[in-house]
Design goal:
Distance between the termini: 89 Å
Number of helices: 4
Structural class: mainly beta
Low-confidence stretches: 7-11, 13-23
Length: 311
């Protein structure tokens, strides 16, 4: 066999191996409570023509490290309840961007940022795609509870000083989330920082699963929306982002290592309650649905927690 023929053969063999690996790789990662009472990671099985992961009723069970060596087994489990796509122990940090959609910055009467506006949420803020949104007593003291639909990027491979051209190769996949916010606590009672008004328990529901970056090659062309009690209140596209996903990851990795399990909420489009006249604040019992094209939706109910009696 000639050197040229050998090279062609090796290239074809490598392409076959890569194709086989991609075929076996997780496409739609979910974490779920199965009907057998156990909690699993799995690769969602969807009916033909369906892309909304929230419709999944079965999944192939995954064994191993979801960020490392793992196997998609032949075991098929029935889904009783979809949980937050990552277990708390598998999450490293929850980073968030503010004012990252041009039209949202305008409705907020704020100048377009020159650099990404970064803040953090505690891991305890995370919730699942159908969990209630608990509103604790401090957040009930005054109006200001608001919704924010967001594309959520999950880091799958360690990244530091990554050029924008390589940034998306470090993404495990994408989900949709709701950056629940209380504007009074965010802007007036937070000492000039946003985290307090956005970091209450359960104020970052996301899911319904994590769609592989191999399936979503262009995260800047997705429709994103919110419905409040069945009425559309946000309707936009990720094209309106000021800092796209690749630019964001590259920027955040400058001198700072992003780890597998880091979650990045990437900002919300226009239509938030605080941008309306009069403002549209969330109330106890409201149903919020945030939706992202090619991924699906999270539907959560606002639930005021009982106030403890003063003794």
């Amino acid at each position: 066999m000639s050197t040229f023929s050998s090279a062609v053969f090796l290239a074809q063999a490598l392409a076959t191996i890569v194709a086989a690996a991609n075929e076996c790789a997780t496409q739609r990662l979910i974490r779920f409570l199965a009907k057998d009472g156990k909690t699993y990671y799995g690769d969602a099985i969807l009916p033909s023509g369906i892309v909304d992961i929230s419709k999944a009723t079965q999944a192939r069970v995954i064994k191993g490290d979801i960020f490392g060596k793992h196997d998609i087994t032949d075991q098929v489990a029935d889904v009783r309840l979809l949980l937050a796509p990552l277990a708390r122990e598998d999450v490293k940090t929850v980073r968030c961007l503010g004012l990252n959609y041009e039209q949202h910055a305008k409705e907020s009467r704020m100048p377009l940022p020159k650099y990404p506006v970064l803040f953090y949420k505690p891991v305890t803020a995370l919730g699942g795609p159908s969990d209630g949104i608990p509103v604790a007593a401090p957040a009930q003291e005054v109006e200001g509870l608001d919704y924010e639909c967001e594309l959520v990027a999950i880091i799958g491979k360690e990244a530091r000083d990554v050029p924008e051209s390589e940034a998306l190769s470090h993404v495990l996949g994408y989900a949709v989330g709701n950056d629940v916010s209380h504007r009074e606590w965010q802007l007036k009672r937070g000492g000039g920082q946003w985290a307090l008004g956005k970091g209450f328990d359960g104020w970052a529901p996301f899911g319904p699963g994590i769609v592989s970056s191999r399936l979503i090659k262009d995260p800047q062309s997705l429709k994103i929306s919110t419905k409040l009690n069945g009425k559309t209140v946000q309707d936009s596209s990720t094209r309106d982002m000021i800092f796209g996903i690749a630019a964001t990851i590259s920027f955040l990795s400058r001198g700072t290592t992003l780890l597998p399990g880091d979650i990045i909420f990437t900002g919300t489009p226009q239509g938030v309650g605080s941008g309306r006249s009069p403002p549209l604040w969330l109330k106890d019992g409201d149903i919020i649905e945030v939706k992202l094209e090619k991924i699906g939706s999270c539907t959560n109910k606002v639930e005021y927690t009982a106030k403890k009696p003063r003794l």
